[in-house]
Write a structure and sequence with these properties.
2 domains
Length: about 425
């Protein structure tokens, strides 16, 4: 080179903030007091909590109106900073029946490109002992969106506590068993932060939907919401051993309770197990281990179902989106046939390879699933009224929920 180096100039990347497309497109439908800056049934992108505050959504407005819009949004952006969320404000008197029938709300949701997760809080939904009607109405709503090819991975509904006279959930008698329902895309949140609940009488019976949505956003598609650690942490938390939802600086989740105020620590082991077995999402901790964590991501369907957990819905829906987008360019294209009338092996191989390559690149290589296979039977006739039959399977990984360790003492390790 023939010169002294002096100074090296290294090309950096990322300063322009060009981000890859978000796999989690999350909208919070929240009961809120309408203002000139906050119009009901309108979609508002939320880039960070200052976005909401510039719209007049603040801790003070929450307190003045006895609502938790700012709180939910602050939890979402705290747990997954840099993620773009969406807010649709609605009247606090809105019922689930009214919400699912409202054409304006449906249009607002359809207008969010790629939306796949919905949270619902701060409205007049049924209490947890009567919640089955609301859950089934929401599943019908999700099914109607699916018929339009809009696949919603999951809806997280606020599990409102029983009447004020109830001191605690009656886990064995009164709490509705969500696992008896046929609503595999619906989950119910039944836990909250007692410190937040104590700030205002209007907060007393809420559930932490915003915390759950933030926990969804920060995880990959295949990760369980109850995972103690996550695969990719926000930059400010890279060195941490686990990913607790607690934040001592902000005094968030220093303890936890059910949405009626029952402290998690007051539950017996049998009660906590019953709550989990009935399909509710709540917050708890592991004895002698720091932090507070979500209990998991059950859905309102029998636990033997392939879709008994939110993350498996996410994997199925992501795969379906990939396959659909890969096959659409082949729609109304020529299908070559052999002399015996079967589909040519070269055509089948080409179509199968397109699907495999797309799924491998977007699902397998990203760690969302372990393997994938697709098969097109050559012995079929297709026309304007008969679709081509395609069989596809995704191999998913297991999720460990607990360990059973045999530990003993010995005088000699064999």
């Amino acid at each position: 080179m023939g010169t002294f180096t002096g100074a090296n100039i290294n090309k950096l990347n990322g300063g322009l903030g060009r981000a890859i497309a978000q796999e989690r497109v999350i909208v919070l439908i929240c009961g809120a007091t309408a203002t000139a800056q906050l119009v009901e049934k309108t979609v508002y992108p939320i880039y960070d909590i200052t976005t909401a505050e510039s719209m007049g959504i603040t801790a003070a407005s929450d307190a003045n109106n006895a609502e938790l819009v700012h709180y939910h949004l602050s939890e979402m952006t705290r747990l997954c900073p840099g993620h773009t969320f969406y807010l649709i404000p609605v009247a606090k008197t809105t019922t689930i029946a009214a919400l699912t029938a409202d054409a304006g709300i449906k249009a607002a949701i359809r207008g969010i490109a790629g939306v796949n997760v919905i949270g619902i809080a701060g409205i007049a939904s049924a209490t947890v002992d009567l919640i089955n009607t609301d859950v089934l109405a929401l599943q019908a709503w999700v099914d109607a969106f699916a018929a339009e090819k809009l696949l919603i991975d999951g809806v997280f509904l606020e599990g409102i506590a029983k009447a004020a006279s109830a001191d605690a959930f009656n886990l064995l008698a009164d709490l509705y068993d969500l696992r008896t329902l046929a609503a595999p895309n619906i989950s119910v949140v039944a836990g909250h932060d007692p410190l937040q609940a104590a700030l205002n009488a209007g907060y007393a019976k809420h559930a932490a939907v915003g915390t759950v949505l933030g926990s969804v956003a920060v995880r990959k598609v295949h990760e369980d919401l109850g995972s103690v650690d996550i695969e990719v942490k926000p930059s400010a938390r890279k060195g941490e051993e686990s990913f607790s939802i607690a934040d001592t600086t902000l005094s968030r989740w220093l303890t936890a309770a059910l949405s009626d105020g029952t402290p998690f620590r007051s539950l017996t082991g049998a009660q906590a197990t019953a709550l989990a077995e009935k399909g509710y999402i709540f917050v708890g901790k592991f004895e002698n281990y720091d932090g507070w964590y979500l209990s998991g991501c059950p859905t309102a369907v029998v636990d033997s179902s392939d879709y008994a957990f939110f993350n498996f819905n996410c994997i199925w829906n992501k795969t379906a989106r990939i396959i659909r987008n890969t096959l659409i360019p082949l729609v109304r294209s020529k299908v070559s046939k052999e002399l015996d009338g079967t589909i040519k092996s070269t055509w089948i191989a080409s179509a199968e390879e397109k699907v495999k390559n797309a799924v491998t690149a977007q699902l397998i290589n990203t760690g969302n699933a372990e393997a994938f296979d697709v098969y097109i039977n050559p012995a079929q006739n297709v026309n304007a009224t008969t679709p081509m039959a395609v069989r596809a399977q995704v191999q998913v990984g297991d999720v460990v929920h607990e360990f059973d360790v045999d530990l003993g003492l010995t005088s000699k390790i064999q």
